[in-house]
Amino acid sequence: MARTAGSHSDITGPRVRAAALQLFARHGYAAVSMRQIAREVGVQAGALYNYTPDKQSLLFDLMRTHLEELLAEHAAMPGAPDPVAALERFTRFHIRFHARRPDEVFIAYMELRNLSPENFAEIELLRRRYEDELENILRAGLAAGVFAVADTKVATMAVIAMLTGVNTWFREGGRLSLNEVERIYWDMVRKAVGL
Amino acid sequence: MARTAGSHSDITGPRVRAAALQLFARHGYAAVSMRQIAREVGVQAGALYNYTPDKQSLLFDLMRTHLEELLAEHAAMPGAPDPVAALERFTRFHIRFHARRPDEVFIAYMELRNLSPENFAEIELLRRRYEDELENILRAGLAAGVFAVADTKVATMAVIAMLTGVNTWFREGGRLSLNEVERIYWDMVRKAVGL
DNA sequence: CTTTTAAAAGAACAAACGTTCAGATAATCT
DNA sequence: AGATTATCTGAACGTTTGTTCTTTTAAAAG
User: Fold this and answer.
1) Is a pLDDT exceeding 60 seen at residue B1?
2) Contact check, Cβ <8 Å, A162/B158
3) Are residue B131 and residue B59 in the same domain, yes or no?
């Protein structure tokens, strides 16, 4: 046998990335073999190399795409009139964006150590750019006298960690709706950095 | 060659666990081979099986020991006069305990998916027991009218995530001392769950 | 000093790994 | 319809994997 009926790169390509995403998130990059990914797609292992030069690139592309979408969607948000409104928008955006992409988030946070040094540097840069957006909001609020944080950098990391932690327990269709979760977290964030 | 000079299980045993801990934290459980661990200890791979029945048990024992120490040390803390004092003690304890064990914490949070189902269940139970201690503090404070959280369970997860996030950036000997970090986080936690 | 035991070496095992490649067949183009 | 191209199979490659086992030697016990 060779080329199978209905085979097309526009179909198989996305399926390869989807399978890699799901399997990496579930079992971890190092624990997943190319043959497992291929089986999930319904193809032999060799065929994967029509869609990626190697396993490492598969991981890297998933991460880069995820972070670039994160930055793009955040940049597309309308500006806020003041730091408090900006922080609320950031909080709600972060929770919503991440809750909708549990696998991508999991990989982006857990598989950093499986990136080659050059790939790691590039991903870190993207992540840093996102964190800077929150840090700028906090700094602006501090200058405006509406926030009170002892250390802007530490507060940035604390808020991000708290918000990203939503993904460890939140499941859509559970006890709380996404909107309720956003409201609860915004309440805590507002108080934590407020006067 | 066979048994080497100075070889003793009281020495090699801890070295095996230490090597596994460091390598698992650095590269991930699945990416580390028994031969790498053996090389770090200065021994052949076969010799490791004098100290662990298999690789999985090595990971499980590291996690279990870590969580049992966490629970034991927390239980050894003196009782607090009120919920606010209890929360401050929990906050400071959590930060201090985790900052001193970066490798153990990393493994306990990242390698859950590499545990066998039975081992996973046991570890999850221990983690849950620890989270319950914080939840009880929050519930007591809520009943006493000194805390104001919209959802106790969510607040528990939020505080834990925020505090554990310290490990992603904190390094002893850096810009901030452990005491300063404790104070900054306690400030944010207090405000986040306060009235 | 002799015997026993504990600890390690080192070879061996089948299985699985990422990746390559020649050949085959479906889809597309002319 | 025929030629070309895109896509996949299936076998093969050299390595590495976790684990077992026999043999050897140091340490401990008598």
Assistant:
1) no
2) yes
3) yes
In chain A, which residues from 47 to 106 place their CB closer than 7 Å to nucleic acid strand C? 48-49, 53-56
Same domain, yes or no: B165 and B183: yes
Flag whether pLDDT at A185 surpasses 70.
yes
Query: Chain-centre distance of CA A74, in angstroms?
Result: 12
Q: How far apart are CA B17 and CA B13, in angstroms?
A: 7
The number of folded domains in chain B is: 2
For residue A165, give how far its alpha carbon lies from the nearest alpha carbon of chain B (Å). Answer: 5
**CB proximity B10–strand D (7 Å threshold):** no
Looking at this protein, which amino acid is placed at residue A67?
L
- The pLDDT tens digits for A134-147 are 999 999 999 999 99
**In A, which residues are within 8 Å of B164 by CB distance?**
161
Q: Which domain holds residue A72?
A: 53-193
Burial class (CB in 10 A: 0-12, 13-18, 19+), B81: exposed
With 90 as the cut, is the pLDDT of residue B139 above it?
A: yes
Domain boundary residue, one of B11, B33, B52: B52
